Amino acid sequence: MKAETRKSKYGLSICDIYSDVPIVANPDDFKEILGTASLTSDSKSILINSEAFSTDFYNLESGLMGHILKLLSDYGYRMSVYGDFGSMNIKRYLDYLGESTPGTDFIFFVPDINQGMEMLERSSRPLGAEYEG
What is the pTM of this model? Predict the structure, then answer.
């Protein structure tokens, strides 16, 4: 796993976490990610590649996604997961997100790092604030 701080174009600190292999297979693993984000960049914004999650994350029946959503919400974090979701049944997953967390502004699924950073930036701006993007 590699963790580093990135700065968005508007100065938001974002913890960028990258792993070639799954490092999140249960809620305790994800708590370690939250701790890493806090220690690495003193940030509540996480940018993470899709491969860092076990396949259970994308399987609704496993319950892992629900646990992670709760942790994000409880601790006030936002996360962008970036990658190629074409081979996953992400539509069902996103439909579930829309039903269970209407107006969600703390988790995003995007194709690349730049869009992930943009979504985190937008979600961190106060309601009604100008955004030039």
Answer: 0.85
